[in-house]
């Protein structure tokens, strides 16, 4: 049996693809990556084959230019899929589904698993129609937040998957006791830095307060590093792109997880951030934005700071909040949640693995 994983994202941006590939490897299933490479880089992976389509898209590129470049990937992906005659496709992300929708629905009905990680403009009628067809014709569709059901088409094919993979989970749980200590409270953002203006406001709000160190680890952190240097902000630590194998090492430097993306946006208001899982696995307090699903699922949890968008006096409010956290209650709560996560993910893991067991039985 052969599996093709197709995406318009680089492998490093396929958050939690390892949850799928670990099951493939465990079942000794050959798999290939077919994806858009926006950085023209080599990425570490265990796939049998890599088929990447290198494109360069500038922020100010017109919609027509972007469409032309992605049209090239559509032709490329279709050819690779046909030539390799895969038994199953994993379609990673709504955008990938949209651009390959006709091909998937007409040629791959119930021979692909669809993964939805973010809001994909389903409020637009044409997108909603496409999404409905893609979900309906999938084997099943995985979602990373139950709140997505508010905007996704009605279907019985959804499976909720917590954004944790067994290997990283065990790594973080075992690393819990080896945290690097610091006198200052280290507020850590880890991952792709996208909401630059909000981040600049946070840096200014905590500027040179010796009680805090503000950390940004991930692509685009260099923009904030330059901003900090220009504004004389010294209580900071920046690391631009890093290998995913360094995730646990970097998290060991944190005291608080920064999940302040923003709100009043469907994508931000409905998502469950992977940082939520980091905070629970490492018993780290977390900052979440008011009026988001992240606030909803952490309501009344110890160790959660709900930010209302007011940066004035934020340093004092954060310090007071952190000093009053009931860490014993937080650890007890997190321990129960980890068990719940594993139980929920077992359903997906068994359903996915059953596909390969059935294939082996048919062969024998």
What does this structure look like?
With 364 residues, the protein is an alpha/beta fold. It has two domains: 2-161, Rossmann fold; 167-337, Rossmann fold (3-Layer(aba) Sandwich), CATH 3.40.50.2000. The protein has helices spanning 17-26, 63-84, 94-99, 101-107, 125-136, 166-175, 196-205, 221-230, 247-251, 266-270, 274-281, 293-297, 314-323, 327-363, and strands spanning 2-7, 30-37, 49-54, 88-92, 112-116, 140-143, 158-160, 185-190, 212-217, 236-239, 256-258, 286-289, 304-307. It has a seven-stranded parallel sheet with strand order 3-2-1-4-5-6-7, with helices on both faces. A six-stranded parallel sheet has the order 10-9-8-11-12-13, with helices on both faces. Helix 7 packs across helix 8 (221-230). The radius of gyration is 21 Å and the shape is globular. The model has no long low-confidence stretch (mean pLDDT 93).
